[in-house]
# Entry
Amino acid sequence: MNNLQEHKDFVRPGWHFLVDALDNFVKMKQRGYLPSKNGKFEKPEKDLFDFDVLQLKEKHSKIRIYSDCLPVEHNWEIFDQENYNDRLGPIQDEIYGFIQALEAISGFICEECGQRGEMCKIGNWMKTYCSKCRDEALSVRGLIENNS
# Structure
């Protein structure tokens, strides 16, 4: 299971490609190879784990993704208590590292159009916009005159 796409509309359209990138990365890891107890790699018949998105949102002008990786019932024999961290832990670390990178990158991508952006203050809010989207947002709020 991977419920990431269900949460996609909680962020602005300019960041949707970041959600898609994470979705593809997680799917790749869910269907990947796992080191077995004898040191060889095995490919499971089903997803290795469930990826549960708890929350996806904009916070402090960056994308925020709160999630969890959980073993699925058909893999309990793979992820028994004694080797759970050894086997799923590295995969979780890779996914959480990918999420941290996306969160950092989002601070430089316009949340409206996906072009290069920067953090700016719109009213009382910090947002990440390109210059065009920033000017439109300010104009709509009556904070600057639009000369076009």
Notes: The radius of gyration is 20 Å. The longest strand covers residues 49-59. The beta strands are 34-35, 41-42, 49-59, 62-71, 118-122, 125-129. The CA atoms of residues 47 and 87 lie 14 Å apart.
